[in-house]
Specification:
2 copies of one chain form a homodimer. The first copy, chain A, folds into 3 domains: 44 residues, Orthogonal Bundle (434 Repressor (Amino-terminal Domain)); 129 residues, Response regulator (Rossmann fold); 131 residues, Rossmann fold (3-Layer(aba) Sandwich), CATH 3.40.50. Chain A has 344 residues and is an alpha/beta fold. In chain A, helix 1 packs across helix 2 and helix 8 runs parallel beside helix 9. The radius of gyration of chain A is 26 Å and the shape is elongated. At the A-B interface, helix 4, helix 5, strand 2, helix 6 and helix 10 of A face helix 4, helix 5, strand 2, helix 6 and helix 10 of B. Chain A binds a DNA duplex (16 and 16 nucleotides) through helix 2 and helix 4.
Amino acid sequence: MVTMRDVAQRAGVSVATVSFVVNGSKPVRDETRERVEEAMLALGFHRNPLGAALARRGHTRIIAMLYPALERPLTPTAVAFFTGASRRAREQGYDLVMWPIGNDAEQVAVLARTGLVDGVLLMEVQLEDPRVDALRTAGVPFAMIGRTAEPEGIGYVDIDFAATTRDAVARLHALGHTRIAFVAGSEPGYQHAARTRAESAYRTAVTEIGGPATVIRVDESPAAGRALGERILTDHPGTTGVVILNEHAAAGLLIGLAHAGTSVPRDLSVVSMSTSAYMAEMAEPRLTYLRAPGAELGEWGVDALLERILSPDHAPRQRLLACEYVAGDTLAPAPAGAGAWAGA
Amino acid sequence: MVTMRDVAQRAGVSVATVSFVVNGSKPVRDETRERVEEAMLALGFHRNPLGAALARRGHTRIIAMLYPALERPLTPTAVAFFTGASRRAREQGYDLVMWPIGNDAEQVAVLARTGLVDGVLLMEVQLEDPRVDALRTAGVPFAMIGRTAEPEGIGYVDIDFAATTRDAVARLHALGHTRIAFVAGSEPGYQHAARTRAESAYRTAVTEIGGPATVIRVDESPAAGRALGERILTDHPGTTGVVILNEHAAAGLLIGLAHAGTSVPRDLSVVSMSTSAYMAEMAEPRLTYLRAPGAELGEWGVDALLERILSPDHAPRQRLLACEYVAGDTLAPAPAGAGAWAGA
DNA sequence: CTGAAAGCGCTTACAG
DNA sequence: CTGAAAGCGCTTACAG
């Protein structure tokens, strides 16, 4: 391994000077700099970040993205978070790695104490997220993609699930739908913040248009979607519209509906929230959906995190993004005569 | 930050002794050990891995999984690799992170030189993979999930694509199919090793049963699958069976076939190779498939890598796994009268 | 503008 | 069984 000492020797300067050149941390005379650079090139020097990190008390220029839900496949949206974040981090001279650890505070604390990462980006945030306290206690800078119930003082970027849900309901209502069900994921003991906010916005919106609130939970899997599709109109007769926040189950839902003889969108309209083009194309008919801005969330999440790392005294960056509507083949006017709600 | 010095001071011993206790690297008298342990507990000491790594010339007990294809969503199979590998690494006292870097040698070389990881696990291996040379040059231990054209001397674990392909063709042939097409992914300038081996096994197998070899490439996306389904029987009339190695396109293929009025499996049988239950359920009808042993691959990949790290002189571990057949709803006897091939 | 030196937190021959 | 000391590769006040 080529060290700074080797470079210093060859260039006839001290290791301090080499360090100044490498980091641009102090002005160096042009002629000296050139000698150092020449030596680095000739020797193939690359600074050892371990030594650098130790000397500067821990800064590694690595940030970790914590993704807990690795039992399920990553949605295209999650992958887009990751690639967006990764690109942005690299632009800023940081490396971003995905660290697959569970949701419990203990594992997060261990990671934090290792000192191997300068900051942490949290995904799949819950309303009350134990990781937040763990990171606070450990004093590790962090930001969230998503947000807890009370995100005051924490940097985050999140989808505006309330606005997105209102949009979904409004689009159905504009086509005459009033009996609209809401389908979301179900993990026991897991208060996914996005789902909670969307569900509450749904209840408000559907009440405003005079319809009943019907909330359905299914596992995040194609099989669960299929099963739901086969029974949804039996369980909830009269429903003409579905807003679904469960990307893993959406395609299966349409398959199950077809099995049950329900024609989409003639008999039932479906709008899928926080979805990707990939998943829309996976479904038949193609989903009408609200596109999750995955890459943007990743990029801005990194920005929010770097702000915490570099300017801990600034107010944290907080930002909400709405999903954009993308027309597909699962939204149509409510069937004639279905508009009036005959009671529960 | 609590350091070894703090612990040593409190316990009335030297930092060396603390280190011996922490690492179990030398015998320590029980009574001394207890004092040290008590001090560590009281102070909440956790060894700083940066210092440790530097002192022992670089060992961080972190291994990186390199996954280049982050433009597409991760398949459930890829996620299973990752979780399997992650679990196994943790069992062995290592942390595994996913490092999203491109396929080019330069980025790999940079990562290698940072000294931040003890070893590297390569995914999405190409026949001639530039990363292999980069890692060899850098002297970083590595193993592959997948394998290059000439994997001699490199640890790996891979799916036995030749055997799996033969199996797929044989199962179709047993039901009277002889005109069997092979559908795989297409990325320009990218010699995916799995695809190449499967394709060559397909050509041999299909020739042996007296059928024509029809190789079709489509992008790895649901949309490309749809488009192919709509034209496949027009482009390749008389085909009664399809073996597909393209998990992202398989569900779309079935959708496209339905659009074209082709009934699966009555008119056309489909067997999907190296697939997961998740993707099988995404498709309608449910795919008949050969299950990719994702978690096992990940675990054994880590084993192969740790072997390289810990016993560089041992012969590298190399292992092939076959995919297991899972019955679904896309395989049926060839349509009557379709058995004979009337020529190209 | 440049250098000598201390120090980051740990490990590990070497002595005893 | 335990300790004093050198060293891992780098950064950074402090002098000059």
